[in-house]
Each structure stands twice: as structure tokens, then as C-alpha cells.
Specification:
By secondary structure, the chain is an alpha+beta fold. The protein is built from eleven helices and seven strands. Helix 9 packs across helix 10.
Length: 337
């Protein structure tokens, strides 16, 4: 445990130093995929441990409020404990156990509420959303699973004790309600669109509807190219091959090219987006060429989407076509079906 904690502490310090050194670019008006990953590390390795401290503080406050005495405590970034003694009823022990989780739930829901109703800088908003998700998942999913499957006599064993059936049922209903509500809301297209707008993924799709009056036409294309880049980065993140992504804002349109090499072929997926209030569309093309010096490239249109797809929808299409083009072999290239 000490070695693991030291390793996590080193990562936390590195994430914090990186955020401080690159704060101007990291907290400007636009987020790249790399900057989103940096902010995710900041939330996971710096903010989550802070929430663990506050979790243990919640236990301590209830111990004191119920007349107990704190005799020891420990903190290991993602795990902590408060040792205490006192004369408690079963329901008082249940409240002491639940106090830490209550702090995490308040922190998580509070971060979501602030990011949703008081959005400001896109980086800060994104950081709040990520921290809120981590805080709730840690408190309501990971910790209960560790308690149930890991043989750890922790808070949730006390919360769901047979000695406090009414309390356990009430907490169980609230527990399930928060998790179910989270899944339902995240699957709602309106919520997803709102999240994308607030974190810079959606960019309000002004580029698809044409440039705003105060914007030059080139600015609209750059914004559109940024939306395509975010969708491509999301789709290729964690994919089985390393890819290169290049954006290109053209006359009246923007496009992005995702390139990779596999199976003896150089492969590419081109996404070409044309803005416009009535004729907006996104076109997908594939290009495959053998790595042999004398080979010729084979290009093929894949599909066309009319209207204003969201970055999430674009990412789903891009990931599907990455998988599709990656399965093409020599016979497919010579005799495409």
C-alpha cells in the first residue's frame, strides 16, 4: 500500500505541475483532445483524492456530533479511514458510515449543477463534469463493489446492515435512483447536447448553420474543423491502431483525414463537412493503398449524412468506418464490394 500510494502521489504531482505550467493553453476558450485528457488526469489524480479527505471529514463530523471520540485516521489518496470509539446505537453507526458517502454525493451533484447552470470557461466546466462523475462513481459504484466483493468491512456493510432495515431500504432506494437517473439522463439526446455545448464539443454548431454575423467565413470553417477533430479524436481514442489526424478548412467546407497502417496497407478515412442552413451535410470517404512503392491508391465514397450531426453521432460513424476500412484486404481493394 505505501509503495502504491507513493506512485499515485507522483502521478498526482506530475498532473498538477503539468496543469500549472500549461494553464494558459489548458484553460483557454478551446479544448483539444490532449487537453481533455490532461484535465481528466487532473480530476482523477488531484481532485478525487481531495474528495476522499472530505469523505473522511464527513465521518469525523458525525462521530463528534454523536459524542464519539476520534482515536486515529489515515489517508492513502484513494483510501482513508477514521478510527473512533463511543457508545452508539445501530442507527447512529449507520449515519456515521453514510456521512462520508453523503459528502461525495453532495460534491458530485454540486459539481454537475455548477457546470450545468453556471457554465463558464469550457475547461473548468469540463473539469467539473469529470470530477462530478468520478465522485459519484467512486461513492456509489466502486466503493460498494469493493465492500461486497473484496471482503472489506467498510461503510456500505454498515449502511446496509440488517440492524437498520428501514434506514437501509431508504438509502437503497436513493442509491438506485441516483444511478438510474444518471443513466437515463446521459442517454437523453438533449442532455448530451447540453453537455457538448458547455464543454466545447458541440460549439453550438454555428458552423453547420453558417457563420455568425460577427464571424468571418474562415472562422466558421475553423470551428467546424475543430468539431470534426474532436469527433475523430473521440472515435480513435483507445482504438487498436495508432492514427494520425489532420484537419483542413477548405473553401466553403472543412474536412479531416484519419490515417493509419495495418495489414500491409496505408489506410485513410476522410470526413468532409459542408455547412449551410439548408444544405448542411457530412460525407465520408475511404482511401487504401498498398505499402508497395508502385501501388496505386483506391478511393471509395462510404456514406453521406444530411443535416447537423452532433460530435457524438459523428464519432460513432467515424469509429464504425475505422473498423470497416480496417477489414479490407487485398481482394477487397482490387474488387471492392
Amino acid at each position: 500500500m505505501p509503495i502504491f500510494t507513493i506512485m499515485l502521489a507522483v502521478i498526482a504531482v506530475a498532473s498538477l505541475v503539468d496543469a500549472v505550467r500549461n494553464r494558459k493553453a489548458l484553460f483557454d476558450a478551446r479544448l483539444t483532445m490532449d487537453e481533455r485528457q490532461r484535465l481528466t488526469r487532473l480530476a482523477l489524480f488531484v481532485l478525487v483524492p481531495i474528495s476522499v479527505i472530505l469523505h473522511e471529514l464527513g465521518h469525523a463530523v458525525f462521530v463528534k456530533a454523536l459524542g464519539g471520540q476520534i482515536v486515529g485516521w489515515g489517508f492513502f489518496l484513494y483510501y482513508g479511514y477514521v478510527e473512533h470509539i463511543g457508545r452508539y446505537t445501530p442507527i447512529e453507526l449507520a449515519w456515521i458510515a453514510f456521512a462520508g458517502t453523503l459528502v461525495n454525493v453532495i460534491l458530485g451533484l454540486g459539481a454537475f449543477a455548477w457546470a450545468w447552470f453556471k457554465p463558464g470557461n469550457v475547461a473548468v466546466t469540463y473539469l467539473l463534469f469529470v470530477f462530478g462523475a468520478f465522485s459519484l462513481l467512486n461513492a456509489l459504484v466502486f466503493y460498494p463493489l469493493i465492500d461486497a466483493l473484496g471482503g472489506v468491512s467498510g461503510d456500505w456493510e454498515t449502511i446496509y446492515s440488517r440492524q437498520t432495515p428501514v434506514f437501509s431500504v431508504i438509502i437503497g432506494v436513493l442509491h438506485a435512483a441516483i444511478l438510474i437517473a444518471g443513466v437515463v439522463l446521459w442517454r437523453d439526446p438533449r442532455i448530451r447536447a447540453g453537455y457538448e455545448r458547455r464543454t466545447g464539443l458541440r460549439q453550438q454548431f454555428a458552423a453547420f448553420a453558417g457563420p455568425r454575423p460577427e464571424m468571418q467565413p474562415d472562422d466558421g470553417r475553423r470551428e467546424l474543423a475543430g468539431v470534426l477533430a474532436v469527433a475523430a479524436g473521440t472515435a480513435s481514442n483507445g482504438w487498436r491502431h495508432p492514427v494520425t489526424i489532420a484537419t483542413d478548412d477548405q473553401v466553403g467546407a472543412a474536412q479531416i483525414v484519419v490515417r493509419w497502417t495495418s495489414g500491409g496497407f496505408q489506410r485513410g478515412l476522410l470526413v468532409h463537412a459542408i455547412p449551410g442552413a439548408d444544405g448542411a451535410r457530412v460525407e465520408f470517404y475511404a482511401a487504401v493503398q498498398s505499402t508497395e512503392p508502385t501501388s496505386h491508391a483506391y478511393q471509395r465514397p462510404l456514406t453521406r449524412i444530411d443535416g447537423h450531426p452532433t460530435p457524438t453521432e459523428l464519432a460513432a460513424h467515424i469509429r464504425r468506418f475505422l473498423d470497416y476500412v480496417d477489414t479490407w484486404d487485398g481482394a477487397t481493394v482490387m474488387n471492392p464490394n
